[in-house]
From TrEMBL:
Top-level taxon: Bacteria
Location of the HTH hxlR-type domain: 18-114
Gene3D superfamilies the UniProt entry points to: Winged helix-like DNA-binding domain superfamily/Winged helix DNA-binding domain
The keyword GTP-binding appears for this protein: no
Keyword list, A-Z: DNA-binding, Transcription, Transcription regulation
The protein's name in its UniProt record: Helix-turn-helix transcriptional regulator
Gene Ontology MF, one: DNA binding
Amino acid sequence: MSRTTAYAPNSGWTDPDCPVARTLDLVGDRWSLLVVRDAMDGARSFTEFQRRTGIARNILTDRLRKLIAHGLLVQRTAPSGRRQEYVLTDAGRDLFAVILTLRQWGERHAFDPGETHSTLVDQHGTPVPDIAPAGADGALVDADSTHVRRAS
């Protein structure tokens, strides 16, 4: 998907100049990100997505179509040749840091202390460390040390 041709200006964006708003226009609903999350965790079939999320069939159908249309998933014939499967594209895999950041925020703020929850681990079984964004100089950056430069 070419970023220069995929979305024409004035195509109904909530805030055309803001990357956050455009991203939310594409994947900002609850179900889209849960489908992407499950695809990252190995779900490939319609049935798997439905079982893992509990999403209604009509909503899942809509979200899968939207994710395909926006270049986050592709649909292809499964190796068995008997069904279709959904696979993340590079753009879909690029949402990993978003999913990870949401997960880590949830671990800190959506659970009571000591409450059990799932844990994301690496290939060795070690919990994934917290994301800490850094500037070009290596110093940590946050909402107090950054600002948005508006498009002119």
